[in-house]
Amino acid sequence: MAKKKEHNGPVTHPVSLITLVNPSSPISEQYRTIRTNIQFASSADNPIKTMVITSSGPGEGKSTTSANLAVVFAKAGQRVLLVDADMRKPTVYKTFNLNNSRGLSTVLSTATSVLEAAQRTVIDNLTILTSGPKPPNPSELLGSMRMGQVIEEAKNMYDIVIFDMPPVVTVTDAQIMASKTDGTLLVIRENVSRKESLVKAKELLNMVQARILGAIYNGAEHSNDQGYYYYGN
Ligand SMILES: Nc1ncnc2c1ncn2[C@@H]1O[C@H](COP(=O)(O)OP(=O)(O)OP(=O)(O)O)[C@@H](O)[C@H]1O
Ligand SMILES: [Mg+2]
Question: Which of 84, 143, 174, 189 is 20–30 Å from 65 (CA)?
């Protein structure tokens, strides 16, 4: 008799994440500070178990932030599920060297469970649900009833579920997920994020009553001192 499989493996080591490569660097420390702030914002009445990471526009550091935050939560002993919910421009499978033949799109469009499609990583406590094959209708899948079940399943199995999203101003995906999750973090990148776009992002998130946990300032790209600062509210 085959034993019930826990998660898929094997896995190779991701190399590019600062929180893994250089955990004692100031940037890694910033990620831990963000983690602490989120933990403090979470309470029994208003727990933060599921969160969305988005930004106003493209290329502002959403995926970088999602992956590093997932790592620091896992290192703190929390069971973490990182979900690549950017089914339009997925990158999480590349960052962690995982197979993307099935993932979130599979779970949303078939009877496959999160447990079946998620993959373990070499990092203790960190499990990843990659995007899966590109679907024709990402917004409809994220807005479906099935997505609600997926969130429930994930919440039952993990302490923290992080959704890496597309930009909120460009497509509606992040807005949809912000309305279904406990909190939203907005990444702002120096010299890239535009003010009007940020105002629009805030408007769109407020429209769906998203709980905005704070903004993460992804600083200067020209220096080694790439900074991450967190502004809670
Ligand atoms: N502060 C920074 N300094 C230098 N490079 C950065 C910084 N933040 C992110 N990058 C790089 O910029 C690129 C885009 O980052 P990332 O993929 O995290 O952004 P994103 O917001 O997820 O983009 P997309 O909108 O395409 O999903 C990556 O190559 C990443 O390594
Ligand atoms: Mg991304």
Answer: 143
